[in-house]
Design goal:
heterodimer, A: 224 residues, Rossmann fold, six-stranded mixed β-sheet, 28% strand, B: Alpha-Beta Plaits, 2 domains, four-stranded antiparallel β-sheet, 10 helices, 4 strands, binds adenosine-5'-triphosphate, binds magnesium ion
Chain lengths: 224, 295
C-alpha cells in the first residue's frame, strides 16, 4: 500500500524534518508512528497525502508516485485517503454533520447515504447530540472526534490519523480505537501517529519510532 | 445527478454568503445591458427610418424654362451619363401648378389670380437604391446643378445631412456603451467571484485536501457567473421592454413615434444580447478563478 524509499524532507530554509526514511506498509496493516514532539511524525503523514512534497526519495501510495501526481489524478487518489489532521482543519462555521459530509460529497455520494453515514459515525463516537452544532462551539476533544469521523466517512482505503486521542479520556479513547479497528478489519490500511502509549502498548501491530527525523526502531508486527 | 446536486448547493451557499455584492453585480450587469440595449434600440430604429427615407429620396432639379422633347432627350442623356438612375420624370409648369393646387386643397382660392405657369418646370430624378451615403448624393446633386439651364437642385439637404450625422453619433454611442457593457460585466463579476473565493479560502483548501476535483471546485463559480449574466441581461432587457412599452403608450397618437414606427428588438437580437452577456460574465468568473484559485 505504501512504499517509502530514502525519503528526506527539509523545510525551507534548512529545517531538516525527515532523513532517509525507507519503509513499506502493507495493504490492510495498522501501523503506529511514534516519537517525541518534533520528531517528524506529522511531516511523514503530510508527505503521504501530498500536502508536502519530499526533498528527496520516492513515495508510492497504491502503486502511484503521489508526490508527482497533479490535478484529477491526485484528487482521485486523495478521495481514497482519509486524513485526520493534528490541527483538525474543520470548517468552524459549519455543523459537525456538514463537516463530516464533505469527504463524501466530493466523491458524489448520494445525499441519503451521506446522511445515514453521518448519523452512524456520530453515534459511534458518542456525538449524537452534536449533529447540528457548529464545530467552532465544540470542545477540543469533540472537534478531534469530528475530524476523525470525517477522515473515515468515505470508507477510504488508507486512513492517516495524527494524534487521534490527544484530548480524550480513557473511555472515549477506547471508542476511537474501536472505530479505527473496525475500519482496519474491513480492509483499510491505517497509519496512526501518536504520543499516547496507552493505544500502542499492547498492540500486535508494528510500531515505528522516529527520532530527530530518522528511523530509530521498528518493533512488533508478525515476528513479535 | 449527484454532481449537479452538490454544485447547486455550493452555488446556493456562495450566494447566501455574499448576497449583497452578488446583488450589486446583478444590478450593474442589468444597468449596463439596459444602457447598451437602449442606445442600440434607438440606433436600429434610426437605421430603419433611414432606409425608409432613402426609399423616398429624390433630387428635384428646377429649370429656367420648360424643355422641349429634344431638350428632354439631351438632359436625360446627360443625367444618365453620371450614373444609372431608377427614374427620370419631367414636370411641366402646368403639372407643377396642378400639384400645388392639390396640396393646398381648401385654400386653393389664393391662387386664383396667379398665372398657371408661375411655377418653374423641373426634373425629378430618383436615384438607384445603390446610390446611398451622403457624399454620393452630394456629388450627384452638384453634377446636376451644373447642367445647363438649372436654377437649383433640392433633396432636403439639411434634413438628410442632420440625419446622417445623428446616426453617426448614435453609432459611436452604441459602440461606447457596448464597451462599457463589456468592462463592467467582466470586472464586476470577476470582483464578486474574487470576494467569494477569498471568503471561502479555508474551505477551498480543505476541499482540495479531501480530493475534490478541479471541476467540483470550479463549476459552482462558473455557474455563478453564468447566472449573473443570464439574470442580469434578462432584467436589463425586460426593463427596457417595459420602458419601451410605457413610452409607446404615453406618446401614442399622431406624433414623432408613429412617424418612426418604433419596434422592439427581434427575438434573435434579444437572445444574442443575453448570450453575449452570459459569455462575458463567465469569462469574468473564469479569469478570477485563474488568478485566485491556484489549482
Ligand atoms: N511548515 C513547516 N515549516 C518549517 N518547519 C517545519 C514545518 N512543519 C514542521 N516543521 C519542523 O519539522 C520538524 C518536524 O515537525 P513535525 O510537525 O513533523 O513533528 P511531530 O513529530 O509531528 O511533532 P508533534 O508530536 O509535536 O506533533 C520540527 O522541527 C518542526 O519545527
Ligand atoms: Mg505532529
Amino acid at each position: 500500500m505504501i512504499e517509502l524509499i530514502k525519503v528526506s524532507k527539509t523545510y525551507p530554509p534548512d529545517v531538516t524534518a525527515l532523513t532517509d526514511i525507507s519503509v513499506t506498509i502493507g495493504r490492510g496493516e495498522m501501523f503506529f508512528l511514534i516519537g517525541m514532539s518534533g520528531a517528524g511524525k506529522t511531516t511523514l503523514l503530510k508527505l503521504l497525502c501530498s500536502m508536502e512534497t519530499p526533498t528527496n526519495g520516492l513515495i508510492e501510495v497504491t502503486g502511484k508516485p503521489i508526490h508527482k501526481l497533479k490535478g484529477t489524478a491526485l484528487a482521485r487518489l486523495r478521495q481514497k485517503i482519509g486524513v485526520a489532521y493534528q490541527d483538525f482543519k474543520l470548517l468552524t462555521d459549519r455543523t459537525a454533520a456538514e463537516n463530516i459530509a464533505i469527504s463524501m460529497e466530493v466523491s458524489y455520494k448520494k445525499p441519503q447515504i451521506i446522511r445515514k453515514r453521518v448519523v452512524d459515525l456520530l453515534e459511534q463516537l458518542d456525538l449524537s447530540d452534536k449533529h447540528n452544532t457548529i464545530t467552532g462551539e465544540l470542545s477540543r476533544g469533540e472537534q478531534q472526534r469530528v475530524t476523525l469521523a470525517r477522515a473515515v466517512a468515505n470508507s477510504p482505503a488508507l486512513i492517516l490519523v495524527d494524534e487521534p486521542t490527544g484530548n480524550l479520556d480513557a473511555t472515549t479513547t477506547e471508542r476511537v480505537m474501536k472505530l479505527l479497528n473496525k475500519c482496519n478489519s474491513s480492509g483499510a490500511t491505517i497509519v496512526i501517529a501518536t504520543h499516547d502509549d496507552s493505544i500502542y502498548r499492547d498492540t500486535t501491530h508494528r510500531v515505528m519510532e522516529l527520532r530527530k527525523g530518522r528511523i530509530h526502531a521498528v518493533n512488533g508486527g508478525m515476528n513479535a | 445527478m449527484n454532481f449537479w446536486f452538490t454544485v447547486f448547493r455550493q452555488v446556493g451557499r456562495n450566494i447566501r454568503q455574499t448576497w449583497p455584492s452578488q446583488l450589486m453585480t446583478l444590478l450593474t450587469v442589468s444597468l449596463s445591458v439596459l444602457i447598451f440595449a437602449f442606445f442600440y434600440l434607438v440606433y436600429t430604429n434610426m437605421l430603419s427610418v433611414g432606409t425608409k427615407l432613402g426609399d423616398d429620396l429624390r433630387l428635384i432639379v428646377y429649370l429656367e424654362e420648360q424643355p422641349g422633347p429634344e431638350m428632354q432627350e439631351q438632359l436625360r442623356r446627360k443625367i444618365t451619363n453620371f450614373d444609372e438612375v431608377q427614374e427620370i420624370r419631367f414636370i411641366s409648369k402646368i403639372e407643377a401648378y396642378d400639384r400645388f393646387v392639390n396640396q393646398l386643397s381648401q385654400n386653393k382660392d389664393v391662387l386664383e389670380d396667379m398665372p398657371h405657369d408661375f411655377l418653374p418646370a423641373s426634373i425629378e430624378v430618383i436615384p438607384l437604391k445603390t446610390l446611398r451615403g451622403l457624399t454620393q448624393i452630394k456629388l450627384f446633386s452638384e453634377y446636376l446643378a451644373k447642367l445647363p439651364g438649372t436654377i437649383k437642385v433640392q433633396y432636403g439637404q439639411e434634413w438628410v445631412e442632420r440625419f446622417y450625422s445623428f446616426t453617426r453619433l448614435l453609432s459611436i454611442i452604441v459602440l461606447l456603451s457596448g464597451n462599457l457593457l463589456i468592462l463592467t460585466t467582466v470586472f464586476m463579476v470577476a470582483y464578486t467571484i474574487r470576494l467569494t473565493i477569498m471568503g471561502r479560502q479555508a474551505e477551498l483548501e480543505l476541499l482540495k485536501l479531501v480530493g475534490a476535483t478541479n471541476n467540483y471546485i470550479r463549476t459552482p463559480f462558473l455557474l455563478e457567473g453564468l447566472l449573473q449574466g443570464l439574470l442580469g441581461s434578462t432584467f436589463g432587457l425586460l426593463s427596457l421592454y417595459l420602458l419601451f412599452d410605457w413610452i409607446k403608450v404615453q406618446f401614442s397618437g399622431p406624433g414623432l413615434l408613429t412617424l418612426f414606427n418604433f419596434t422592439f428588438f427581434p427575438y434573435s437580437a434579444s437572445f444574442t444580447i443575453i448570450g453575449v452577456s452570459i459569455l462575458l460574465c463567465t469569462v469574468g468568473s473564469f479569469t478570477s478563478m485563474q488568478k485566485f484559485l491556484r489549482i
